[in-house]
Write a structure and sequence with these properties.
globular, 5-stranded mixed sheet, 9 strands, alpha+beta, Glutaredoxin
Length: 260
């Protein structure tokens, strides 16, 4: 069933002030995800980033109406966007975990550094889980970094993703600062000329916006949010959570690839 959510001007104002997405706070009592409605001000010195706004917050649009799929099917969750899915693990693994993430999100960083290594070792490397990472940038600096991440060689995607999270202190800011972002991605072989050209690639930015907007349609309200075989979990997951959720998913009948 699909529900149409209309955000009034008052609700939008509250959303902007409280950092809520669609007027609903994504913060949890423990390990809250990054609020999806917070957008850092664009730096006027960077014309390309501010003029062609990467990852605008649609909740700030006047008369914003957002279609939310309240109970998406696995097929709807697995619907691929306009860019290749960035994934690890066997394509036919019995369990699929999708993580929606923002590069500036401290809780995404916590998950990556504390939980992901064990998840990879125990489930991804053993063929039990396919792990998909989908972009849900929050704030203009996160958007700028996401553009660079997608411009770098795809084989370097997950290496650079971890490097961005591990080195938050060197590049995360309230304003768009491209130089520290370039210092992260240049290790992939991306030249400065190619890096600067990425921010003029309107098709790339539009496609990344589509991925984020699709996430909102599926009910994503902040980062990190996860789908495990189509079931949405709006919180940071621990390995204890993953053990339980993967066991539950494996205990259910296998869904055919056609329906996934």
């Amino acid at each position: 069933m699909k529900a149409i959510l209309a955000a009034s001007a008052i609700a939008l104002t509250i959303s902007a002030l409280t950092g809520c997405a669609g007027g609903t706070s994504p913060l949890q009592s423990q390990s809250p995800p990054q609020a999806a409605g917070i957008a850092a001000p664009a730096a006027p010195a960077v014309k390309a980033a501010s003029a062609f706004n990467p990852f605008r917050d649609e909740s700030d649009a006047p008369a914003a109406y957002r279609e939310i799929i309240t109970n998406p099917t696995i097929a709807e969750v697995m619907q691929q966007g306009p860019l290749p899915e960035m994934s690890l693990g066997r394509p036919d693994a019995p369990v699929t975990i999708i993580k929606y993430a923002s590069l500036t999100c401290p809780y995404c960083r916590k998950f990556q550094l504390e939980t992901f290594p064990e998840l990879k070792r125990e489930y991804i490397d053993t063929g039990k889980v396919r792990f998909i990472l989908r972009e849900f940038p929050i704030g203009f600096q996160s958007g700028a970094a996401t553009i660079a991440l997608r411009c770098a060689p795809p084989a370097q995607y997950f290496t650079l993703y971890e490097k961005f999270l591990r080195n938050h202190s060197s590049w995360v800011s309230q304003q768009v600062r491209r130089d520290p972002i370039f210092k992260i991605v240049r290790s992939s072989g991306l030249t400065r000329q190619a890096f600067d050209a990425c921010y003029e690639d309107k098709a790339l930015i539009a496609n990344l916006n589509t991925i984020k907007d699709r996430g909102r349609t599926l009910g994503i309200i902040g980062t990190p949010n996860f789908f495990i075989n189509g079931k949405l979990k709006k919180r940071v997951l621990t390995m204890r959570d993953i053990h339980k959720l993967v066991a539950e998913a494996l205990a259910k009948p296998v869904v055919s690839a056609q329906n996934r």
